[in-house]
Design goal:
The chain is α/β, with parallel strands linked by helices. It is built from eleven helices and nine strands. It is globular. It starts with 6 loop residues before the first helix and ends with a helix.
Length: 321
């Protein structure tokens, strides 16, 4: 059912979202430190019997210099450097197999899929531990790990990984570094938004039903997971409400959207009780770059699925003209 605001109200929705005064300084320092590790990305060829695509097992240095895995898929026939799509994965999932990610390379794009540290045990398998948490890939939750401080919060590590994955993709000789887009659904959409707000030279952003936006509304509007992890934490830690929301303000997609400049194509589903429509529109309406959004009136968190993929293909083709 349509449990959130009417579409007309969503299109004008512009809530107050706390933004720390040191938001930019916090992220500048975080990324500066992360880039100092100096480990070059490694791309190891894999023979999976695909006649038209090449596949590579990728490893790059993420937050704290920890190795992060990924896949790189390329069309075998490539007369010139390729535009690239860097994709981030939804909550609980990992990089899975290269065979799970054939679309973009089949459409003549380089495709870099970032594994998600500590995740990959709820659906697609992950291969990247989270050494700062002392954790192998494990089952959710992640939303309250280190939540008492922005310096220790899990998403500081993951969002840093997301920026460095973009830089790793740019380093491959088959990729045109001036034409790199980011995308992902749910958590992956939230990571794409974060990168759009942290990377000024991005070609395009395609956040699909993005998670990690307008935390205070999300955690009080729906009781579904993953946002319920935060609610359940605060049910027990009753005196930490403002401390928790202060931490989350450093990782809110609305605050990243205000800093973004790349052309963007969003999607939202009006029956989505995992990433509520008003939280998506809160980020979309603040997005500072050129933007458009596809609205799926009768869909839940699955969003537009293959219909949205076709919209994304058309969007990037339009940027190539």
């Amino acid at each position: 059912m349509h449990f959130d605001l009417p579409l007309e109200a969503l299109q004008a929705y512009d809530p107050e979202v706390a933004r720390p005064e040191d938001f930019g300084a916090f992220w500048d320092a975080t990324l500066r430190e992360a880039r100092s590790c100096g480990l070059e990305p490694v791309f190891t060829p894999l023979d999976l019997g695909l006649r038209t695509l090449e596949t590579f097992d990728a490893t790059f240095a993420g937050f704290g210099g920890a190795p992060v895995k990924g896949w790189l898929l390329l069309p075998r026939a490539r007369p010139d450097k390729l535009p690239c799509v860097v994709e981030y994965i939804g909550y609980g999932g990992g990089r899975g197999s290269p065979l799970d990610w054939l679309l973009w390379a089949s459409a003549d794009y380089a495709h870099f899929v970032m594994d998600t540290r500590g995740q990959g045990s709820a659906w697609l398998r992950g291969d990247t531990p989270d050494p700062q948490a002392g954790a192998n890939p494990h089952h959710p939750g992640f939303l309250t790990q280190g939540i008492r401080s922005p310096e220790t919060y899990y998403y500081r590590r993951l969002m840093t990984d997301a920026v460095l994955a973009l830089e790793a993709a740019r380093a491959h000789p088959a990729v045109d570094p001036a034409r790199v887009a980011v995308t992902g659904g749910s958590q992956g959409g939230g990571l794409a938004l974060a990168v759009a707000g942290l990377e000024p030279d991005l070609w395009a952003a395609m956040p699909d039903v993005p998670f990690l936006c307008h935390f205070r509304r999300a955690t009080t509007l729906v009781d579904s997971h993953p946002y319920a992890e935060i609610r359940n934490y605060l049910k027990v830690h009753r005196g930490e409400v403002e401390r928790v929301y202060r931490t989350l303000s450093y990782f809110d997609g609305v605050n990243f959207a205000e800093r973004a400049s790349a052309p963007a194509l969003f999607s939202v589903a009006l029956m989505d009780d995992i990433c509520p429509p008003s939280t998506v529109f809160a980020a979309y309406n603040r997005y500072a770059g050129e933007k458009d959004i596809r609205v799926y009136e009768f869909n839940a968190h699955e969003g537009g699925q293959s219909v949205q993929k076709l919209e994304q293909l058309r969007f990037l083709r339009g940027l190539e003209r």
